[in-house]
């Protein structure tokens, strides 16, 4: 669906195996949000720490810079109440995202309540 909408869907391959992927999808189905996307990124545990996440997300952002997209939103799960950065928040911050909100205990993952951290990157900060 991302590719059909002209949005990037990238896959990292290491030694013939898929090691991760990153893509952008429509943020909301309403016309008012047509210039905003949500990014998603996944790195296989055995491939973590190799810089794949940075390269994938940077490539997604590079692609989006060449489109009409203005805002990119990241929706990141973190242990409820945790004030420690997750690898995903560190990655997004490094690539220019800022935290714009936190919704406490809205998710349940791996037997634990999870907060949702919202981060955002403005691709057109000069207008």
Task: Please tag this protein with its features.
2 helices
Structural notes for this entry:
By secondary structure, the protein is an alpha+beta fold. It has helices spanning 52-65, 87-94; strands spanning 9-14, 17-26, 36-43, 71-79, 98-109, 112-122. The two termini are 29 Å apart.
Summarize it.
The chain has two helices and six strands.
Describe the secondary structure blueprint for this structure.
Blueprint lengths: L8 E6 L2 E10 L9 E8 L8 H14 L5 E9 L7 H8 L3 E12 L2 E11 L5
Parallel strand pairs: 3-4
Antiparallel strand pairs: 1-2, 2-3, 4-6, 5-6
**For the terminal residues, how far apart are their CA atoms?**
29 Å
Sheet bearing the most strands, described? 6 strands, mixed
Please provide the ordered H/E string of secondary-structure elements: EEEHEHEE
Order of strands in the sheet with most strands: 1-2-3-4-6-5
Basic shape: globular
Overall mean pLDDT = 93
Number of E-type strands: 6
Structural class comes to: alpha+beta
Low-pLDDT runs: none
What's the tally of helices?
2
Helix content class? 10-25%
What's the Cα radius of gyration?
15 Å
- Beta percentage is 35-45%
């Amino acid at each position: 669906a991302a590719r059909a909408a002209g949005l990037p869907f990238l896959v990292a391959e290491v030694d013939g195996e898929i090691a991760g992927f990153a893509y952008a999808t429509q943020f909301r189905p309403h016309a008012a949000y047509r210039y905003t996307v949500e990014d998603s990124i996944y790195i296989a545990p055995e491939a973590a720490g190799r810089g794949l996440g940075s390269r994938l997300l940077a490539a997604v952002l590079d692609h989006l810079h060449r489109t009409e997209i203005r805002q990119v939103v990241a929706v990141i799960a973190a242990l409820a109440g945790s004030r420690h950065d997750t690898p995903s928040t560190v990655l997004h911050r490094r690539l220019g995202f800022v935290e714009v909100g936190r919704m406490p205990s809205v998710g349940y993952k791996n037997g634990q309540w999870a907060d949702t951290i919202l981060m955002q990157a403005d691709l057109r900060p000069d207008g």
